[in-house]
Amino acid sequence: MTKREYNACVDLHADGAYRFVLKNLGNEEESKDIIQEVFTKLWEKAETVNFEKAKSYIFSAAYRTMLDHIKKHKPLSTEAVQYLEPSHESHYSDVQEVLEQLLTLLPEKQKTALTLRDYEGYSYAEIAEIMAINESQVKVNIFRARKFLKNKIKSMDVLI
Asked: What sequence ranges are listed for the domain RNA polymerase sigma factor 70 region 4 type (predicted)?
C-alpha cells in the first residue's frame, strides 16, 4: 500500500470505523484512541496490506482492538440491568435511548454483528470477514440479538 492509498483509507474508512467502535463502547475518547491505534497498525503493516482489502483489515483490527480494550478496562456491570428494570414510577418515551441501553446488555459478538449490520449497513459476508466467523454465525448472532431486544422491549411496561 502506498502513502497515497493509506491516506485514502483514512479518508474513506476512519469515520465508519469510529462510529462502529463508539456505538459499542459509548466513550468518545476511548473510541478515538482505538481508531488511532488501528491506523497506526495499518501504517506499520502498509507493505503487506492490499488497498482493496484495507476496509476489511481496518474493521477487523478495530473489532479486535476494541475487544482487547473491553477485556482490560471494562468489568461487567449490572448497573445497566438494574437501570432498565421496569418500575411503575419511571416511563421511557425515547425508544432510541432504551435501545442504546439494551445494546449494552448483549454479548459482545451479538452487539458487534447487529451494529455492523443495522447501524453501519454491512453485508453478512463483510461482517463475517470482519469478525472472522462464517456467515451463518453472523446471521445467528444478529437473530439472537434482535430476538433479545424484541423480548426486552415487549416485557417493559414502562415504554410508552
From this structure: 97-149
